[in-house]
Amino acid sequence: METTTLNSSPLAAPSKDFARRLLTIGENRLELLMVEVQEERERLLHAILLALGVALFAFLAGIALTIALVVLLWSLSPIGVLLILTALYAAASILLYRRFDALQRDWKTFPATFDQLRKDRACLEEFLG
Questions:
Q1: N or C: fewer beta carbons within 10 Å in the chain?
Q2: Looking at the whole model, is its pTM more than 0.85?
């Protein structure tokens, strides 16, 4: 009885090479994702700090302007001055809310990572199919 030994190295070499390349691509994509997460975190923190600064100084300016206008126009119509200021502040808040809502709708998270993953999938589908 003869025993036959199958040498699987010619068949296994391409699959090992493919697996190695696939892992390298996965590692590269994970590194790209981590870089983008870090960039997004820094950008978000910077945006929050700037927004807080803007809000604080706009609030202080609004208080000073309100007091100045109320004192200046108190003799004409105290209720009218307060109603006009209330309408102006409400209009400003509505405008800012609309801009904030548009910013939220147009926000794209990790665009380079997702774009690269789509390219990888298309390349893999072309290779396999």
A1: N
A2: no
C-alpha 53: how far from chain center: 20
**How distant, in Å, are the alpha carbons of 24, 28, 33, 103 from that of 117?**
13, 11, 10, 25
SS3 129: coil
List pLDDT tens digits, range 51-107.
999 989 989 998 998 899 889 988 998 888 888 888 998 999 899 889 988 888 887
Q: Which runs of consecutive H residues, i.e. helices, occur in 74-129?
A: 78-105, 111-128
What is the spatial distance between Cα 34 and Cα 112, in angstroms, rounded to a whole number? 12
Which pair of tokens denotes residue 51? Answer: 């927004």
Q: From the centroid of its chain, how far is CA 112?
A: 12
114: which DSSP letter? Answer: H
Residue 21 pLDDT level (bands cut at 50, 70, 90):
confident
